[in-house]
Design brief:
UvrC_RNase_H_dom_sf, 6-stranded mixed sheet, excinuclease ABC activity, alpha+beta, DNA damage, 7-stranded mixed sheet, GIY-YIG endonuclease, cytoplasm, globular, Nucleotidyltransferase, domain 5, UVR_dom_sf
Amino acid sequence: MIKDEVKEIINKLPSSPGVYIMKDKYGEVIYVGKALSLKNRVKSYFSKSEGKGAKVLALVQNIAALDYIATDSEVEALILESNLIKKHRPKYNISLKDDKHYPYIKINLKEDFPVVEKVRKITKDKARYFGPYPSGIVVNETLNAIRTLFPLRTCKGKLSKKDRPCLNYHIKKCLAPCAGRISSEDYQKIVEEVILFLEGKNLELIKKMEEEMVKAAENLDFEKAAKLRDQLQGVKAIGEKQKIIFSDLEDRDILALAQGDNLACIQIFSIRGGKLLGSESFKLENTGGSTPEELFHAFITQYYNNAPIIPGEILLPMELQDSKVLLEFLSKKRNGKVVLKVPQKGDKKSLLEMAEKNAKLQLQTFISQQQKNKQEAEEGLLDLAKALGLEELPWRMECYDISNIQGEHSVASMVVFEGGKPVKEKYRKFQIRTVQGPNDFASMAEVIKRRLENFLEGDSSFTPLPHLIIIDGGKGQLSAARKVMEETGFGHIKTIGLAKREEEIFLPNRSEGIILPRNSKGLYLLQRIRDEAHRFALTYHRKLRTKNTLTSELDKIPGIGATRKKILLQTFGSVEEISTKDVGEIAAVKGIPWKVAEEVYKHFRKSR
C-alpha cells in the first residue's frame, strides 16, 4: 500500500529527466535511481508486481518517503545518481565497494617546481594524476625509475632559492631548484618528459630526447649530451620490459565480470600506450537479482565518474542496451570520443578471456573473506550479548569518545557499527559548545544529549536508535551519559563504559567491572569500535587545532583585523599560502596597504 505522502509526490512528478530518492521509515536513503521521465519510471515501481524480482518487491515494501531532483538531461541524471549512490550507499543499489584506495602518482602542475609523489586520494586541485596502480609496490618501482632517470626534486614544501643544495644535488639526482640552480622553464621541460614516460609514450619521449642529445652535441655541450645518452638508455631498458600488446599504441580498458549470489567482481586490465600496465579487481555489493548488463552499467557509471583517465576504448564481453546515454556520459567526462566494443577474435578476445578468469578467481577470494568476516562478526555479537546479559544481539552499536588537550578545541566522535562492521557514512563529529576546560564528564553528557535531541527532532542522520551505546571511559563518563539518557526518556538503551587500562567493562548501577578473556571475540569487537572512535575524534581534533592555530597567526600581526584577515584568506586560500608571498604580492591585494603588507611579510620571515 502506497503512503499518502508518497502518492502525492508521485502525482506531482514531472515527465522530465532526473533522479528519484527513496527512503524508509527512518529517513534512510534505501534506493537512488535515474530516469528519462521521472513520472513514468517511479510509477512503474507501484504497478502490478508480476515479473518484478524479489529485490524490487522488498524495496517497494520499505518505501516510506520519496524525493526527486529534476535535471536538464539524462546524462546529468546519470552523474547525479552516481554521486548520490557513493554518498548514501543505499541498501538496494548495486554498490561499488573499493576499500583499497588504489595508489596514484600525482604531479601538481600549478607549482613552479612540481614534485612527483604517491597519493591514495584524488582531489579536485587541477593536478595531473596517473593510475590507479594495482599496488603501492608498482608505484614505488615507477617512482624509483623516474628518480633514476629524471633529476626532479623529492623534497616537499616551499622553496626560497636561497637554501643550500642537499646530497641529491651532489650525486646528480636533483638539479637544486632550492638553490636557484635551474629555472622554472627548464624544470618544466623535464616534467613534460616525466609525463610522457607516465603516459607510456616512450617512443615519443625517446625521439624527443634523441633530438635534444644531437642538439647538445652540435653545441659542443658534451656533458649534457652524455647525460641525455644515459637517460635514453634507461628509458629504452624500461620500455623493453613493458610488453607492447597493441601496435596502435592506444589507451583502452578491458572489463570482465564474475557474478555470485549477492556479490560480483569486475576485473579491469588497463592498457596504456598499447602496453598492459596492470589489473585491478573491484567488488560490487547488493547485486542479487541483477543482470550482467545492469552490473556493467552500475560499475561504469560509478567507477569512471571519478577516474582520472578515461580511455578512448572500453572492451566488454557483451553488448549493453541503451548505451547511448552511457557513451555520452563517458565522452563528456573524457572530453573526447569513447567507444564500447565486444571483441570477437585476436589479442583483444584473448585478453578479455584472461580478465574473466582473473575475475572468477578474485570473486572466490571476496566470497571467502566475506564469509570469514561475517562469521567473526556474528561470533563477536553473540559473545558480547552473552557477556553483557543482553536479550537481543546489539546489531547497531554507537561508540563515543572525547578528544582535547587541556580543554582546548574539545571535540567528540560518534562511530557506528552495524552487524559488527563499521558504517563510516553514519559517523558523526561534534564540537563541544557548553563546557569550558578539560571536563570529559560534562562533555560526554552534552554529546549524548545532542545526539538524542537530534533523533527527537527527526534528523534522519541520527536514526535509528542504537541497541548498545559504548562510552570510551570509566564510571564517571558512563554515569554522566546515563543521567542524560534517563532525563530524556532513553534510559532503556543498553549502555556500557570501556576503560582502556585494563579493558574493563562498566555497567550502570554495578560497582565492579567485567573483564572479558583476552581471546574473546566480543572484547575484540569492543576494542575495534573503541579504537575507531578514538581515531575519528583525534583526527577531527587535530584538523580543528591546526586550522585555528594557522588562522590565529594573522591575529598576531599589527594592522590585520577581521576584515583584512578575511580579504587575505579569500585571495590566497590559506595562511600557509600567505606565508610564501613577498611584500609586493601582498600589497597588490585590494584593501591591504604597503605598510601592512610589510608587517605580514616580516611576521612570517621571523616565524621561519
